[in-house]
Every structure is written in C-alpha cells, then in structure tokens.
Design brief:
The protein is of the alpha/beta class. The chain has two domains: about 10-205 and about 245-265, Rossmann fold, CATH 3.40.50; about 210-245, no CATH class. It is built from eight helices and seven strands; from the N terminus they run E-H-E-H-E-H-E-H-E-H-E-H-H-H-E. It has helices at about 15-30, 50-65, 80-95, 115-135, 160-190, 210-220, 225-235, 245-260, and strands spanning about 10, 30-35, 70-75, 100, 145-150, 195-200, 270. Strand 2, helix 2 (about 50-65) and strand 3 form a beta-alpha-beta unit. The radius of gyration is 18 Å and the shape is globular. InterPro entries: NAD(P)-bd_dom_sf, SDR_fam, SDR_subfam_1. Belongs to the short-chain dehydrogenases/reductases (SDR) family. This is NAD(P)-dependent oxidoreductase. Keywords: NAD, Oxidoreductase.
Length: about 290
Amino acid sequence: MGKLDGKVAVVTGAARGQGRSHAVTLARAGADIIALDICADIESVQYPLASPADLAETQHLVEKEDRRCVTYQADVREPAQVREAVDGGVAELGRLDIVVANAGITALGPALSGSAFLDTVNVNFQGVVNVVTAAYPHLRAGASIIATGSVAAMFRGATDIRQQGPGGAGYSLSKREIARFVHDLALALAPESIRVNAVHPGNVNTDMLHNAAMYKVFRPELDDVTPEDFEPASAAMFPLPISWLEPRDISEAVLFFASDEARYVTGQQLRVDGGCALTHTPALPNP
C-alpha cells in the first residue's frame, strides 16, 4: 500500500529537474500523474528549457512505477492552455487530489531587458495561480496544493538587480508572492478541507542551477566560470557541508505535504535549504 494509492496529481514543469523528481516520487507512492511542461525555450532564459523528449522520459519513468501518466505541452503563462491540460487529464484519469505548482525559470544577467522580469513573474508566480485556478473546480475535501517557492523569498538581498538584472528581481518578487499566496489561499480553502503549503528550496542540482548565467552570478569576477569554480561558491551558502541539494530532497517534502500524514498541515512555508536561510531569519517571528 502506497501513501497516495488511488490519488491523482498534476505536476507542472514535469519534464525534468525537480518536476520530474516530484512526478516519479508521487507515482512511487501510488499516484497517477498529469504532467505539464512548456517543452520549448523562452527568449529571456539563457539556458535551454526542457524538450518533448524530456517530457516523454518523465512519462516513461512514471509508468515504470506501474502508474498511469498523461502528458501535455502547456505554457503555464497561458490560462487556457493550463485549463485544457488539467481538464483533459482529469477526464482521462478520473479525479484530481494533488496540485504541485512547480514550473519555474531564472532569467539572469544585467544586460537583459524588462521582458526577463515579466517572463519570470509570469512563469514563477502567475503560473502557480493559473494551475491552482484550473485545478480548483476538480478538488474535493482532503486535496493538497503544493507550490515551489525559494529561499530567495526568505531574506533580503537574495538577488541583486545590479548584478542579476531585471530577471533576478522578478525571481525574488515571484517567490515572495508565492509565499503570500500560499498563506492567504490556505486560509481561504481551509473550510473546504483543502490544504495549501509551499516548499522553499535552496540551490538544487538541476539545469536551472548548472548553466553559465547562474555560474556567473556566483563568480562575477571570472570571465569563464567552470563547474569547479562554481561549486565552492555554492557550498559557501550552506551551513551544512554540501554544495547543493538533490531534487529528491525536495520531492520528499512534496510527498509529505501530499499525503494524509500532513492532513492537518496547511499554510506552511517549509525551507528545504541546507540551512542557508538561518543567518538571515530570526528564530521566532517578531511579536
């Protein structure tokens, strides 16, 4: 018996990285999966995004867990595309119990235009709103909504517009708004017994972290930053002796929030960050 037997989850940004890990982890626990991803590049993003082949591989990995998986190429910035995908997935799989609003981008660099800000906010925050809005008519008591935030929402100075450009500012804004959205939505949906929580990762070992634009953020003094140059700079963020987190570390938190083990847990902002926000946040909220 799995923790999620008989349940169906929708996961955005499911073609690779954290999204793929979440989809496979939930499937291993018994859930069928509706997997969404844009499977196309966005002009302001300076690293390749996932491909249709990546999304097909996620489907293959879910089906290896003996669970059903339906996939859709959908841009979370477009409400109609998201609604069509969610409705289609529910029609095929029969229900919807779990929403993992995970799709996200970084568009870093001081030379980028304001489109980097707008693309980032529209994917990272408005994309969360769009998938929750599309999913809500299908949700019933006991459902769980989980959004991917970031430790960038947890403290000031997580991004610097002078160094990281408008996309960095958009990233911080979008992740702060996810935290607020989750808090207020949890209150709004509590009478319906629908839970809403956020997971806020630190640096995670995915393509979003391992690319030239991100490396340059961490080592701006170098012209050509190698992975070997980047690793100690990333490790310096963590009190724990690590260089980054693995996607599975975030997926375990997603699984907890999705399961009945968290049936009375709602409105939480859970940092899975190797301790990197500790020196920036108080032990207790201000009275």
